Amino acid sequence: MAENLLQVEVVAADAEVWSGQARRVVARTSEGEIGILPRHEPVLGVIAGGEVRIITSEGEEIRANADGGFLSVDQDHVAIVADRAQLV
To answer: Is pTM beyond 0.85 here?
Structure first.
């Protein structure tokens, strides 16, 4: 994987919604909004619902609504696994 990028997956219970490389991910968890950049320390959070914003490696902004589920960060890999998710 390229240096200074995150590998991101957004999946719903029934399908993959988006995957690719990103510079930044912002999501709302039960603890509040979290911003994730490359080299972020590992974290596991409960998705509080709402919009997930992904800035891709090309600088494009991807937005998805996610309800329920969790967010996991480990070694520049971000997984958002939601009960329901769709691109906005």
So the answer is: yes
